[in-house]
Design a protein that fits this description.
- With 88 residues, this protein is an alpha+beta fold.
- It has one domain (2-36, 45-86).
- Helix content is 42%, strand content 16%.
- It has helices spanning 13-37, 68-74, 82-86; strands at 2-6, 50-54, 59-62.
């Protein structure tokens, strides 16, 4: 799985640390979401999934570079606000 960060013009060290912490929280939740939506009998390689995280807009989306067959399976149910993912 690849996470593409969409950041503002200036990236401070504080923002970099925030992104690392956020990715640490998001990865397990995204993987859990993917497992719940994909056929357990298929051997899906999660490395083909890409997500775009807009830090300023506080949203997350499935990147257009994710293969269409997977994109269409998860797009409708994928929670977009980062806050939704980071609760708990």
């Amino acid at each position: 799985m690849t996470i593409n960060w969409i950041l503002g013009d200036e990236v401070e060290e504080t923002l970099h640390h925030y992104c690392v912490e956020l990715e640490y929280k998001l990865r397990p939740k995204i993987v859990k979401f993917l497992i719940s939506r994909l056929d357990p009998d298929s051997s899906v390689d999660f490395s083909c999934f890409q997500f775009d995280i807009d830090v300023e807009g506080r949203s997350i989306g499935i990147s257009n570079t994710t293969p269409h067959r997977y994109y269409s399976l998860i797009e409708a149910d994928f929670p977009k606000p980062i806050l939704e993912f980071t609760k708990i």
